[in-house]
C-alpha cells in the first residue's frame, strides 16, 4: 500500500509487515505495543532513531514521502536529533509532527524550538485535534 510504519523509543523498529498481517485494529495496536515493550523506560532518543532511519531505510525516503511523527518532542541528544531531522527534511516532501503536549507547554521544551524549522508541528492529543489537522491540511495526505 506504500505505507511503512516504524515505532521507537530508543531504537527504530519496522512494524510494517506485522501491521499488514493484523486482522483487526486492536490486533494492530497489540502488535505495535508488543514490539515496544522492551524499550520503555530508557528515554526517547530521536537522534538514534533518525540515524537508524537513514542507515537502514534511507533509500525509501523520497520527495513523495510524508513522514508523520507522533511525539511530545522530549528527547535525549536534542541537538544531534535536530541535525538528523534537517537531513531527513531535505529528502522528504514533508514532516508532520503531531505533538502530544498542549501547545501552551511547548515553550518549556527546548527541543521543540530546535525541531520546528524542519517540520509542521501541530498539537495533537485527541482525535478531534487529528481531525482538525487533516481538515486544514489535506495536501499532505
UniProtKB/TrEMBL annotation:
This is VWA domain-containing protein. PANTHER family: BLL5662 PROTEIN-RELATED (PTHR39338), BLR6139 PROTEIN (PTHR39338:SF5). InterPro entries: Uncharacterised_CoxE.
Amino acid at each position: 500500500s506504500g505505507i511503512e510504519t516504524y515505532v521507537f523509543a530508543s531504537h527504530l523498529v519496522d512494524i510494517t509487515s506485522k501491521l499488514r498481517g493484523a486482522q483487526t485494529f486492536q490486533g494492530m495496536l497489540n502488535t505495535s505495543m508488543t514490539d515496544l515493550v522492551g524499550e520503555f523506560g530508557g528515554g526517547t532518543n530521536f537522534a538514534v532513531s533518525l540515524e537508524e532511519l537513514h542507515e537502514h531505510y534511507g533509500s525509501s525516503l523520497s520527495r513523495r514521502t510524508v513522514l508523520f511523527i507522533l511525539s511530545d518532542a522530549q528527547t535525549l541528544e536534542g541537538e544531534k536529533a535536530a541535525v538528523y531531522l534537517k537531513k531527513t527534511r531535505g529528502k522528504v516532501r514533508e514532516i508532520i509532527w503531531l505533538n502530544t503536549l498542549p501547545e501552551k507547554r511547548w515553550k518549556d521544551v527546548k527541543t521543540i524550538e530546535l525541531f520546528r524549522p524542519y517540520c509542521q508541528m501541530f498539537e495533537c492529543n485527541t482525535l478531534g485535534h487529528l481531525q482538525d489537522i487533516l481538515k486544514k491540511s489535506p495536501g499532505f495526505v
